[in-house]
Amino acid sequence: MLKHIEETVDYLKNKGFKTPEIGIILGTGLGQLINEIDIIKEVSYNHIPNFPTATVEFHKGKLIYGILAGKKVVVMQGRFHVYEGYTLQDVTYPVRIMEKLGIKTLLVSNAAGAINLNFKKGELMVIEDHINLQGSSPLAFKGVEHLGERFTDMSAPYDSEINSTFKNIAKANHIILHKGVYASVVGPQLETRAEYRMLKIIGADAVGMSTVPEIIVANHLNLKVAAVSVLTDECDPENLKPVDISEIIAMATKAEPQMITLFKELIKTM
């Protein structure tokens, strides 16, 4: 992996990706942030050596470098998932690349279902902790110790200072921002009634199919990390209706301007 990382980083540096300070991963239906960036360079994933390629139709598949709120950022417009057939090492490879390019902070967004029924679709949740239900770890491979501490501490995976700033920004901008625990499952199927009940019992406030692998690797690399879920549906096992993925995407798009406000205003303070 070290050789692959070196090849990828050299390619991107030669393309003009110079010393970004902040990395951003945009989740399902969350691509409008790109419109706020003064883009300097962008490269399709399928042109980047050793990079996975997004296979989900609503994930664009571009790595973008530019200026946002006065800071150099590198943005993943479209992420990778285990349910696409990738390994957890594939899914998190871009985090390792962004760190080698120079980022010190990683901001992550996702679309998630609300397990906590006090939360409503269209609202946001800042992730304070998570539950990894993806069946393995992105650090479970031979040679991981050459990239960072094998036994990575996860007692506080999300930066409390950033989360506190998010809360202040939300209050100032009249944005409903919950705090909670995110459970990451494999997917791509949605959950059964029994699975929603289980998730509630074990302490999840929201559920999705991403984010946790990237957060684990970011902690492995000693990056500051924060993540925000856009709640796109309400997962009430007693009143469960069939889920329409197009409705989830539409809800994510509708709520996204609030997430953009959080990210932009946060970056101004960094």
TrEMBL record:
Pathway: Purine metabolism; purine nucleoside salvage. Pfam families: PNP_UDP_1. Its EC number is 2.4.2.1. InterPro entries: Nucleoside_phosphorylase_d (IPR000845), Nucleoside_phosphorylase_sf (IPR035994), Purine_phosphorylase (IPR011268). Residues 22-268 form the Nucleoside phosphorylase domain. Transmembrane segments: none annotated. Belongs to the PNP/MTAP phosphorylase family. This is Purine nucleoside phosphorylase. It comes from Algibacter agarivorans. The lineage of its organism: Bacteria, Pseudomonadati, Bacteroidota, Flavobacteriia, Flavobacteriales.
